[in-house]
Structure formats: structure tokens, C-alpha cells
Amino acid sequence: MVKRGKRYESSAVGIDSESAYPPKEAVSLAKRSATAKFDETVELHLRTGADPRHAEQMVRGIALLPHGVGKEIRTLVFCQGDAIESAKQAGADRVGGDDVISEIENGWLEFDVSIATPDMMGKISKLGRILGRRGLMPNPRTGTVVAAEDIPRAIDEAKKGRVEFRLDKDALIHAPIGKASFEEDQLMDNLTTLVDTILRGRPSGVKGQFLRSAFLTSTMGPSVPIDIAGIMDLRVE
Known about the structure:
By secondary structure, the protein is α/β, with parallel strands linked by helices. Helix content is about 30%, strand content about 20%. Strand 8 and strand 9 form a beta hairpin. About 35% of the residues are buried.
């Protein structure tokens, strides 16, 4: 049996691991149990009925959380020509082409989201082994490969609260919904938007029940089970 620290045990008081709480109550419990000395991230963990071994059942997408994720997002834009100035004016933290590619090959990774124009994909494909395993590779399916005229929109979305989610090898989805310092209503809004986006992206190849279990947890806190029926009812109006 795993031995827990006093702070963890104290924060878990009042949370029944055998119960399933309505989403709003689960948000309240997760927020209350975040008692570390730093502003903990609140995350949603979903177990799905999808089979990640089959491409037609892969779950992947992006959600634009209305209240952001509570952290400054550093953006890198791979582009060339006139698009460079456009990206800078739109607020990109770093813009470049061959120069930035070389820096990444030498170990520089001080960014959270990378965006690229289609004409740069051939050049940055060699970075796949570096960026791919960290979830930093631009990808058309997640809206990070965009035409030059769409760069400002992509940067704006990334900085406002763009969350990427995808199914892992164990058929789980993990994604943040904000910080413990957020108001409960803000966390609830973010949770609703994320769940609604995931449910709308359900692959047609998934048979039977799509969501099997759901939990909210803060960085250092206990897991709070969420009632699946309540999760399935979350919709953006």
C-alpha cells in the first residue's frame, strides 16, 4: 500500500474514492484539495472505450478554453518571407526558419506551442524525433499548420487557452482545465468546453460506451471521481 504524506492525507479528507460526484461538486473538491504552496494545475483524466491500436478510433483535437489555462504560453512560428513580420506583430515569442531549426537541433526548446506555414513543413520534418515525442510538432489536425494569413489567429488561440488532447496507448485522455486559483465557475466553464469538444470528436469507429470513467485531480492532490452520466451531459450552450 502506498504511504501518503500528511498534507495529502489531509487534503483527501471528505473525498470518497468509491463515490462518483456530479461535475460541479467534483470541481469544488479538486479545488479545495489543492493545498500545495504553489498554484496547482487541475487536470481532467478520462478513460475511454476507444482502441488506440486502430487509426479510425484515434481521439485527437484541440479545445479553446474560455478562461485559459492559467499560464503564459510561449509560441514559436516557423515561417519565411513576409510571414515573419506578420508573426512578430501578432505577438509570437520566437519567429524564424533555418536558424531556429538549427537551435532546436542543438537543444533549444523554450516554447510551449509551435506553429508553421505549409511551406516550412519539409524543412522541419527532420525535427520530428525531437518535437514529436514532446507534443511540440506542428500538425494540420491540431490547427498548428496554417496559411500565412492565418498566423495571427493561430497565435491568438494558442495564447488564450488552446489545449491539445489525444488518446494515449492506454485509451486515456489527460488535459488541464486551469489552475486551482481559478474561481469554481471558471473551472466549470473550462471543463464543460473541454468535455463538449471531446464528445463532439468521438470517432465513428468507437462502439459501445465512449467514456468509461472520469477523474479530476490537482497536481499534488487526490483524484476525485466524476459521475459519467453528469460528464456526458456537459454541453456548451
